[in-house]
Specification:
The structure holds three protein chains of three kinds.
Chain A: H1 2-17, H2 36-39, H3 65-77, H4 81-84, H5 106-115, H6 130-143
Helix pairs in contact in A: 3-6, 5-6
Chain B: H1 4-15, H2 31-63, H3 80-116, E1 124-131, E2 134-139, E3 148-151, E4 153-157, E5 161-168, E6 173-176, E7 184-186, E8 193-197, E9 202-208, E10 220-226, H4 228-239, H5 248-259, E11 289-290, E12 295-296, H6 299-307, H7 309-312, H8 325-335
Parallel strand pairs in B: 1-5, 4-10
Antiparallel strand pairs in B: 1-2, 2-3, 5-8, 6-7, 6-9, 9-10, 11-12
Chain C: H1 17-27, H2 32-38, H3 42-70, H4 81-117, H5 125-147, H6 172-200, H7 213-245, H8 258-291, H9 299-312, H10 328-340, H11 342-357, H12 365-388, H13 390-396, H14 400-430, H15 436-462, H16 479-509, H17 547-550, E1 567-571, E2 578-583, H18 590-607, H19 611-627
Antiparallel strand pairs in C: 1-2
Classes of the chains: A mainly alpha, B alpha+beta, C mainly alpha.
Chain lengths: 184, 339, 645
């Protein structure tokens, strides 16, 4: 009887402890993630250097379906659509393909949003709070099918322009491509 | 009006707690709510009488209980006479029920027509769109520059019918001011219209009444009913672009507003801030409350809201703004100039 | 569990005891853990339904306590908005789907119906067992969801677009939708079993005109379940398709309609509340008859009322949608229908009054609960009349007035009769009497606490407090009433704890009960308490509506049924003439295995579409095992018609 009780408590604890990060609603944000900007390096240090691969870094927001969904809403609210459409690109490069000019890791995308990039990407530092930039970075990755299906957004309540992010096949990134290889 | 008298009336509105009749459906301030209140009491007293009769019947029946013991009494033989009388009693009770329900039906339909039927040809039109978790208020006008856009606080002239056209940007909300009229759900993809008319000047509170997510509890609005002249003056004031800041602190505040996250979501006409994601702030200082009737419109509440809205409305779409203290003071000073 | 041992011979004539022993051997259910999962006897499955449902009642009550604690003062921070949304959604879903229907309809029905019909077991016993396991599966899915932060947070009715893919990310709403699927299939299974038992397994002589009111009600409710559940399965199914597959049923931007969900849901939702209430009313009819010591007055009007309520329940659903801006004429029709449905319920009330008035009332414990029902349900029904009127509803819809109304009708209409029924049939189920003293304490604490807690909510609604708010401002004048309401919950909790103490105590040391401690008329009181595994020593016949009161001492019994195989009698649906014999399939592990595979497929499909092709073969395998023809006893002559269970 006692052993069964212990087993029961262990089982209950496991269930409770295994609560899914997918379902996390992160309503209070951790402190500033500004130091990420200093760790992402897009190119080597000598003039004309080739692009160097960025080690993978993580983004706690991309484990939460709620955060990715917020990223989707912010992508619309902040008019990323104006240049990038819903991933297909226009004035700006497409975000749902394999080419990542400045890298596809969350830190790279975060840095791109914060720093801006040549040829038109504005810098949103101080305009977009860091945690929202991380949420948008998570959503952008989902547009290329890089997030697990369970956290990617399903169909939006808009007109059906493209398959939902959760049905998008994974576009394996080809690393940092640099500006010149955009059209591949 | 501007300056000291307006400030005084704002402070007064914030200092006094809502009076007991506020937000109470049985204290009508408009003919619609009045019709409904009348119907409510009429039905209530009928049903109260029914309740008394039924309870009396059960009490009389129950009072004849025999001594309770663990032995059950023998079964009663069938009594034709008693059953016949009971049959008459039940039959008449059913008849009375049918008639009563029919009366209630007729009165409901008649009252419904009184509440819904608009005969005026010159109503004031307002387009209200529900957002998670605030109300976008637009007074449409064929001339674009005569269209008033504001948030959460509706002004209407007394004695004039007001037609509300509904829409929702995201999920289902419900617009409900109990002192004024019944509620109407705002359904995305549907546009409906309802009307009301307020005859007594005053400020009437309302709240969202359809569960719409994390901050459904904090999605209020208010309807300010004022004289026709005051209403038109308010409209004219709302049409003006934002006042130029006069003090250095307010000037600094505008600069902070335009160089931080604020302009990504809010509009202040007359500046570069033109986003429609969040409420229009061009005349935010003219409103009695902020954050959808959650906080009074005072410097302290504004500062707290701007600095950390998630503390007050967790889950709201507005981000915390960790500003330098001087910048926070400046922004609040600027917002308070936006009458 | 210390149930009294069934007495094998229920007959004065001890020469029959050999028959009793043979029957006991034939009808026995296997023991041990494996045997527990093979059990297909209706009494055991019925007890399991009732015990499981009661556990979920307690869990739902804990959630309710959390709600009331959060609302006890303004801007309280006991629970934040996210957890609060999960708590109230779980409270509603648990109480309606995991407690009310499984207890009132499935549990009570499965236990009592075959006994009242004079049958040895329920029809389709394996389907019955399968329904129980599926119900448990759905309940575990839902509560497992809550414990892993995946509990539904969009209310128990989960309106779109809030519950749709755009505004409910993650799998919370999917867990809710699949739970619906589980519990509705379970309810459908039991409905089929009960309806078939009532129509084809009644004792000879029990024409439709002689059926107890409770059997009429169970028949009506079974048909209501069969017609109503598909609507909610469609609603939740379309929601799942929108969320997981990417369809646009509820997406206005692509031609979908958010109101469609409400229509589909409430077409189920309103009959659902009658599915919860009518079993309570039928229990009251049974108890009023017994404790007034006379046959019920107005049998025909009551039966007609029960059936009419079942029908009319399908015609009123739009009264949940009056605020959506539908055309006035349409709404008026539903006002008329909603008022009309008062008439059959009122008729039942009048007949009950007359029965007691012209009877010899003995106000024993179960009858006390019936009087509680009369008071509470009357108030709830009258506030319902107010809600039927469109203009009044437009003010009080989605406020605490409605919360007060439905708690009065659900607690009054289902919970009070449930406790009445538990105290009444406790001796039959367990063989012991419950303590009347503890029962009275339970009643008064619960009754007073309930009225304090919920009558107050009417005023809160009139004062404008909307539903589903996790907090409120200090200047809204709602604090005092909220505090009063929260304090009433304490008394209710103590009452329920006393009830639990009463049950556990009575199981061990309660006074032993004979066959018929209350002197009631139904066939279920003709055998020992608890019933032996074969229910009736001889399948009875009846010649009146109240068999144990009216049947002569030499009322014939059915002979010719074998006692070495599980033989049952199938009778005509109208006049219960014997038609042919049939064989009960006996204990089987397949219902459990099938429920396991179906549950796995359902749960897996939330997370990946592969669960459907991967989950289907095991389901088919277990179905094949279940339906594999067993052959027949060689000495059993078959009639032309054969049944497959």
């Amino acid at each position: 009887m006692r052993r069964q009780l212990q087993l029961g408590i262990l089982l209950a604890a496991t269930i409770v402890g295994a609560s899914c990060s997918r379902e996390d609603r992160i309503l209070r944000q951790p402190p500033s993630a500004n130091d990420t900007l200093n760790t992402v390096q897009v190119s080597g240090l000598n003039p004309g250097a080739n692009s160097i691969p960025t080690p993978p870094n993580s983004n706690m927001y991309q484990e939460s379906a709620y955060a990715v969904s917020e990223g989707q809403k912010l992508y619309e609210s902040y008019n990323c659509v104006g240049c990038h459409a819903h991933g297909g690109g226009g004035i700006g490069p497409p975000l749902m393909d394999r080419n990542w000019i400045y890298g596809s890791e969350p830190g790279n995308i975060f840095a791109t949003i914060m720093q801006g990039r040549p040829n038109g990407m504005p810098s949103f530092r101080n305009r977009v709070p860091e945690y929202q930039a991380w949420e948008i970075a998570a959503y952008v990755r989902s547009m290329a099918g890089l997030l697990p299906k369970s956290v990617s957004p399903n169909r939006s309540d808009q007109m059906n322009i493209k398959p939902a992010e959760s049905s998008t096949p994974k576009q394996v990134p080809t690393g940092i491509t640099g500006a010149g290889e955009q059209s591949k | 009006m501007n300056g000291a008298p307006k400030l005084a009336s704002h402070l007064l509105a914030q200092a006094m707690p809502l009076d007991p009749g506020s937000h109470h459906m049985l204290y009508p301030a408009a003919p619609q709510a009045g019709h409904i209140e009348w119907l409510y009491w009429f039905i209530f007293w009928i049903l109260f009488a029914v309740f008394i009769v039924m309870i009396a019947a059960f009490a009389r029946a129950g009072a004849k209980t025999r001594a309770v013991s663990s032995v059950m009494l023998p079964i009663l033989e069938k009594d034709e006479e008693k059953d016949r009388r009971a049959g008459w009693a039940v039959g008449s009770a059913i008849g009375v029920t049918v008639i009563t329900l029919f009366v209630i039906l007729v009165l409901s339909v008649v009252t419904g027509k009184r509440v819904e039927g608009l005969t005026s040809k010159n109503p004031v039109s307002i387009q209200i769109t529900g957002h998670q978790w605030w109300w976008e208020i637009i007074y449409p006008n064929p001339q674009a520059d005569q269209t008033v856009t504001t948030a959460n606080e509706i002004h209407v002239p007394v004695g004039t019918p007001v037609v509300v056209m509904t829409n929702s940007k995201d999920v289902i909300h419900s617009f409900w001011a109990p002192n004024i009229t019944g509620k109407r759900d705002f359904l995305p993809g549907y546009s409906s219209a309802f009307w009301f008319q307020i005859d007594k000047p005053g400020t009437y509170h309302g709240q969202c009444a359809e569960f719409c997510g994390l901050q459904h509890a904090h999605m209020g609005f208010s309807i300010v009913a004022e004289s026709v002249g005051e209403f038109q003056a308010w409209q004219q004031q709302q049409l003006k672009p934002a006042a130029e800041p006069l003090t250095a602190e307010a000037l600094r505040g505008r600069e902070v507003f335009l160089t931080h996250a604020c302009l990504m979501c809010h509009t202040i006409r007359g500046t570069d801030a033109g986003s429609r994601v969040g409420p229009d702030l061009t005349h935010v200082a003219s409103r009695n409350m902020i954050a959808a009737e959650t906080l009074p419109n005072t410097a302290g509440a504004l500062a707290g809201w701007v600095a950390d809205p998630q503390r007050i409305k967790p889950g709201t779409r507005m981000s915390p703004n960790p500003l330098e203290p001087d910048d926070l003071q400046a922004i609040v000073a600027y917002l308070q100039t936006l009458h | 569990m210390a149930l009294a041992e069934p007495i094998l011979a229920n007959d004065q004539d001890t020469g029959q005891s050999e028959v009793a022993l043979r029957l006991a051997r034939t009808w026995r259910q296997p023991r041990g853990l494996w045997g527990w999962f093979c059990n297909t006897h209706h009494t055991d499955i019925g007890i399991r339904f009732m015990v499981t449902a009661f556990i979920f009642f307690l869990l739902g009550g804990v959630l309710a306590a959390a709600i009331r604690l959060q609302l006890i003062r303004p801007e309280n921070s006991f629970i934040g908005p996210d957890l609060y949304n999960q708590v109230f959604s779980m409270h509603g879903s648990t109480m309606i789907f995991l407690f009310a229907v499984p207890m009132m309809f499935q549990g009570f029905g499965v236990y009592i119906v075959p006994l009242m019909c004079g049958a040895r077991n329920i029809a389709f016993p394996r389907l019955n067992a399968f329904s129980y396991y599926l119900y448990v599966g759905g309940a575990l899915v839902l509560w497992g969801g809550l414990l892993t932060n995946t509990g539904p947070d969009v209310g128990w009715f989960a309106y779109v677009p809030l519950s749709g893919p755009a505004y409910s990310p993650g799998h919370r709403s999917d867990i809710w939708s699949q739970m619906i699927t589980f519990t509705e299939v379970s309810a459908l299974g039991v409905a089929i079993c009960i309806a078939t038992t009532i129509l084809r397994h009644r004792a000879p002589g029990m024409t439709l005109n002689r059926m107890p009111v409770l059997l009429w009600e169970k028949l009506t409710i079974s048909l209501a379940v069969i017609f109503a559940m598909p609507a909610v399965m469609v609603a939740s199914g379309l929601l799942l398709l929108d969320r997981l597959v990417g369809t646009h049923f509820f997406n206005p931007a692509e031609g979908g309609d958010v109101l469609l969900y409400q229509h589909l849901f409430w077409f189920f939702g309103h009959p659902e509340v009658y599915i919860i209430f009518l079993p309570g009313a039928a229990v009251v009819s049974t108890l009023v008859e017994c404790f007034s010591r006379r046959r019920i007055f107005g049998y025909t009007p009551i039966v007609v009322s029960v059936v009419a309520t079942g029908f009319l329940g399908f015609s009123v659903w739009v009264h949940h949608m009056f605020a959506t801006g539908l055309p006035q004429l349409s709404e008026s029709f539903f006002t008329a229908a909603s008022l009309m449905i008062v008439i059959p319920t009122g008729t039942q009330f009048f007949c009950w009054v007359m029965t007691i008035w012209h009877g010899r009332l003995q106000l024993r414990l179960p009858m006390l609960w019936c009087f509680g029902f009369f008071f509470v349900f009357l108030i709830g029904g009258l506030s319902g009349v107010m809600l039927a009127s469109v203009p009044v509803d437009l003010q009080v819809h989605d406020t605490y007035f409605v919360v007060a109304h439905f708690h009065y009708v659900l607690i009054g209409g289902a919970l009070f009769p449930m406790f009445a029924g538990i105290y009444f049939w406790f001796p039959k189920i367990t063989g012991r009497m419950a303590s009347a003293t503890l029962g009275k304490w339970h009643f008064w604490l619960f009754f007073i606490g309930f009225n304090i807690a919920f009558f107050t909510l009417h005023f809160l609604g009139l004062r404008g407090m909307p539903r589903r708010v996790y907090t409120y401002g200090p200047d809204m004048h709602w604090q005092g009433l909220n505090m009063l309401a929260s304090s009433g919950v304490i008394l209710m909790t103590v009452g329920v704890l006393i009830f639990l103490a009463n049950v556990f105590r009575s199981l061990r040391v309660g006074e032993m009960a004979g066959n018929n401690p209350w002197g009631d008329a139904g066939l279920e009181w003709s055998m020992s308490s608890p019933p032996p595994p074969y229910n009736f020593l001889h399948v009875p016949t009846v010649s009146g509506r109240d068999p144990l009161w009216e049947d002569p001492p030499d009322q014939p019994v059915v002979v010719g049924l074998r006692d070495d195989i599980r033989e049952t009698l199938v009778t005509h649906s109208l006049d219960a003439d014997p038609q042919h014999k049939d064989e009960d399939p006996g204990p089987s592990i397949w219902p459990f295995l099938c429920a396991l595979t179906v549950s796995a497929a359902f749960v897996g499909s939330i997370f990946t579409p592969w669960a459907v092709p991967i989950g289907a073969p095991p389901v088919i395998a277990t179905l094949i095992g279940w339906l594999w023809p067993r052959g027949q006893s060689p000495s059993l002559p078959r009639t032309g018609e054969s049944w497959v269970h």
